[in-house]
Amino acid sequence: MLLLFFMKVCMSVSGIIIIVLVLGFAGFFLSYARACAIVMQGTKMHSRPHYYGLWTFLLIIVPSLFFLFFWNIGSNIYTERRALTHIPYAAAGDIIHQHNLILSTIRNLVNRLPKHSSNMLNHQLNSYASLRDILGQKGVVLDVQGKNYMVPIVIEWVSGLKKLRQTGVIITFVLAIIGFLVGFSETKVKKRARNRVERVILLGLLVSSTLAILTTIAIVSSMLLQTISFFRAVPLSNFFLSTAWNPRFSVMTFDESIGEFGLIPLLVGTLYIAFVAMLFAVPIGLFSAVYTAEYATPRARDVIKPMLEILAGIPTIVYGFFALIVVGPFLRDLSAAIMGGNHAFIMAQSVLTAGLVMGIMLTPFVSSLSDDIITAVPRSLRDGSLGLGATQSETIKRVVLPAALPGIVAALLLTASRAIGETMIVVLAAGVTVNLTLNPFEAMTTITVKIVNQLTGDLEFNSPQTLVAFALGMTLFVLTLLMNVFALYIVRKYQERYE
Amino acid sequence: MSSELKIKMCGLDVKVSYGKKRALHGITLNILENKVTALIGPSGCGKSTFLRCLNRMNDTIEGALVTGKILLDEEDIYDSSVDVVELRARVGMVFQKPNPFPKSVYENVAYGPRIHGLAKSRVALNEIVEQSLVKAGLFSEVKDRLHDVGTSLSGGQQQRLCIARAIAVSPEVILMDEPCSALDPIATAKIEELIDDLRRNYTIAIVTHSMQQAARVSQFTAMFHLGNLVEVGTTDTIFTSPQERRTQDYITGRFG
Ligand SMILES: Nc1ncnc2c1ncn2[C@@H]1O[C@H](COP(=O)(O)OP(=O)(O)O)[C@@H](O)[C@H]1O
Ligand SMILES: [Mg+2]
After folding, report:
1. Pairwise CA distance, residues A23 & A26, whole Å
2. Which of A208, A489, B99, B235 could cross-link with A380 by S-S, CB 3.0 to 4.6 Å?
């Protein structure tokens, strides 16, 4: 009984992974022990013993787990394809759309079948109602609307998948054993285990870095596709040149026009708020960086630096609250008080409020980045200046800051791209009304706010009203990308100047 | 010694500690006018520390404490009435690694005169820059590149640029801390030649690890060991008949 259970566990995917790992560790220790034994006899081996162990370990787990991974993906695709061919043509109709719908119903059914229940689904079972009854006894509730022809397909699918899985598990096990045998037999004096292990590690690192890049590319290209389909429906000029924002949900109104999607007011709002934020953050951040880097005693620095770094970790929604509840009303009441109590010329949600709070949020970034850059200016430059009789402030002004300038500019560009992409503060503090103005006391809205607006609620993903979010996101992405590339370019160009 | 020798700077029982660690245990040493004084000794014996006392560069080091007296023309430079800015204009310093500012050659040399307000006009500033570069033996090499960035020069040129930069504020004393240790032999020879020229107008104290260099450029040599002054004398006596066993061992390369 126990043995049977054990066999079952072994045959499952997670079971085989554990087995392969156990084999891997066993292989490691056996090869290691063998290499140690050879060394003990006084023979000099090419590599240190643990490299032989590692090489065996890698031989056991890498090929087998890779195989398992791709085999499982492959078998899922294969069974699905096969099921697809079994859907009766009449049921599918010629509409692809409906075909997909049926497929997803079937996939749903497959996923809802309890694990290991495929045995009890014998092949005589052929009506949907009886399937529902049997599963109902097991506590699985199925939809009423299934069709009879789906039952054999589901059964076929489940049992086919199971067979493929079992085959995969067996092959995986065999591969692991082969890896073990090869690795163990290669634990010999002349074998260059170290070089091989090193190469595998290099490969692993390479794969990780390409994976990150590929993911980014995938995200961007999916966004690009949506953007393109947006521009199919809306002319470029409507987006880039219009100053009006009025994305009507024309599906309801039978109106021919699709609404207006003017980027300009949003872009201006974004840049304006970011500008106000930088206006606060840059001087304060820079001065505090100069203080921590140049004047603060080590003790003061040890307190101030971590505190700034903690500030940089506060979630921006908290700043948003702060803007909404404290800063906005305060500025409004203040302006009302100035005007004698009845006319507040600063609105609670305004460019000033959002910019000010965003500036507070960005200050620790500016100061922390700039501090690192200023401290990276070599001491020898400071000594050279001080040795000529310059005072500390002259040295900072004329030598340290100019030397650090490219880095600081790059840091400011990075900060600015954060300001542009910042969402939560502006959602809460800047307002949602589209407004093209230069008055910082009025509410304006930003690209990120509109993205949030267009994507919240129950929406279909093929109307221009939602697709515009992707076009806006793409614009934002291009904008910040350009800034980051420019920052990188500046750093690259000037960083060698110290040496 | 002949009567024309004048003491330019003089350390009296100079003690330095960095935090709890004592680096100099009471050094008394004269630096004579228009002479080159070489400070030699194994690494970590306090040569740089002593040199930095002479223009109070130790003030910039956290936790450094200097006691004793250091006189410049009979005036204590650690007296509270002394202005460090003025002192460093009178006692210039050239560092171990060439450290030109990331500015143009011209701006590097003009830096000192600018902060001290030495030039009344653009023309006067140009004159100072040119003269300093000439004195540092660099002018002919860089006269067409005055507006190139200083770090684009070769290592030896950079070090002479740093010397020109120090000269530009018309110091009386120039301190050099292993000025050639980062340079190749040809650049080193040029600098040594330059030091010999500069002696006519300036008083020079130089730290060096090369016995040949000390013998070639200096008239007086002071031997340091573990924060103490072992012995001092004319370079000839130190190199031919040192009084102390440790000096003998060091210059013949037995330790250090
Ligand atoms: N900035 C410093 N902080 C702490 N200790 C220092 C510092 N500079 C030098 N020292 C110590 O003072 C001693 C003398 O150093 P230094 O004057 O640089 O020696 P030298 O130039 O002769 O090689 C050494 O033991 C060194 O470790
Ligand atoms: Mg030294």
Report:
1. 5
2. B99
Other C-beta atoms lying within 10 Å of the C-beta of residue B163: 26
Helices (H) and strands (E) in chain B, counts: 10, 10
Six token digits for residue A192: 């260059």
pLDDT in tens, A462-478: 788 888 899 999 999 99
Q: With beta carbons less than 8 A apart as the criterion, state whether B132 and B167 touch.
A: yes
Note whether B72 contacts A: Cβ–Cβ < 8 A: no
The three-class DSSP label of residue B3 is: coil
Residue A139 binned pLDDT confidence (cut-offs 50, 70, 90): confident
pLDDT at res. A161: 86
Distance A67 CA to ligand 2 centre (A): 61
**Residue ranges of A 367-396 with Cβ closer than 8 A to chain B:** 378, 380-391, 394
User: Is residue B204's pLDDT more than 80?
Assistant: yes
Looking at domain A260-497, its CATH superfamily turns out to be MetI-like (1.10.3720.10)
From the list B30, B34, B29, B74, the residue with the least C-alpha distance to B172 is B34
The residue type found at A426 is: V
CA-based nearest residue to B251, from B27, B38, B41: B41
Domain boundaries, chain A: 2-209, 260-497
Q: Which residues of chain A does B63 touch, with a Cβ-Cβ cutoff of 8 Å? A: none
CA angle, corner A277, sides to A274 and A279, nearest 5? 110
Q: At what angle do helices A150-185 and A2-11 cross, to 10 degrees?
A: 90
Q: Does B111 touch chain A (CB under 8 A)?
A: yes
Three-state secondary structure call for residue A46: coil
- pLDDT value, residue A144: 66
pLDDT one-digit tens code per residue, A25-47: 999 999 999 999 988 888 888 88
Angle subtended by helix axes A96-112 and A150-185, to nearest 10: 70
Nearest by CB to B99, from A380, A389, A394: name it: A380
Place of tokens 């299934």: A146
One-letter amino acid at A209 equals: S
User: Which of B129, B153, B126 shows the shortest CA–CA distance to B142?
Assistant: B153
Question: Does residue A91 have a pLDDT over 50?
Answer: yes
Give dist(CA A53, CA B128) in Å, integer.
Answer: 71
pTM of the model: 0.76
A36: left (phi over 0), alpha (psi -120 to 50) or beta: alpha
**Strand bridging mode B75-76 / B64-72:** antiparallel
- Cα separation, A68 vs A195, in Å, equals 27
- Its ipTM equals 0.91
Question: What is the nearest CA distance from A395 to chain B, expressed in angstroms?
Answer: 10
Residue with tokens 């005589």: A124
CA of B61 to the centre of ligand 1 (A): 11
Three-state secondary structure call for residue B64: strand
Q: How remote is the CA of residue A293 from the centroid of ligand 2, in Å?
A: 25
